[in-house]
Design goal:
By secondary structure, the chain is mostly helical. The chain contains 6 helices and no strands.
């Protein structure tokens, strides 16, 4: 018979999963608005493609940088930094006054989207090895739901 996980671990996992959900929800809300905002500022279709690509490029760079930082500084500070940076970049994106600021804020949002990698590392540190697959699978559920 297995003993249930301690309450603080369960609460921590709930916070982590909620943050992944909200981060992906923000991405899902911003993406459909991108063409309308970009064309309002006179963007070409090429520039719209650049705005989509810059998110992914900065996400790749951010996951490398933030992954190393989380190994050196700890998961929690980097996770909080990602959430703070993500929320600021999405707010700034909504208040952007020009095309280049939209592009820059999309890039920042991509860079700070390291919450998934931080969550995976955090879950691996919290959960016993035999249950790791199950709890990492829950991250996928929250990614899809967001």
């Amino acid at each position: 018979r297995e003993c249930p996980m301690p309450q603080p671990v369960t609460e921590t996992l709930l916070v982590l999963y909620s943050a992944v959900f909200l981060d992906l929800l923000g991405f899902g809300i911003a993406l459909p608005l991108l063409p309308f905002l970009a064309f309002r500022f006179g963007a070409s279709t090429y520039m719209l493609g650049m705005m989509t690509a810059v998110f992914s490029l900065m996400q790749m760079l951010g996951n490398i940088v933030l992954g190393v930082a989380s190994d050196q500084l700890g998961r929690k500070p980097v996770f909080c930094f990602c959430l703070f940076g993500s929320s600021l970049s999405y707010c700034a994106f909504g208040c952007a006054k020009g095309l280049w600021s939209l592009l820059a804020f999309r890039g920042l949002a991509g860079f700070f989207s390291g919450t998934i990698g931080c969550t995976q590392a955090y879950v691996c540190a919290l959960v016993a090895e035999r249950e790791r697959g199950l709890y990492l699978g829950y991250i996928g559920i929250f990614i899809t739901a967001g």
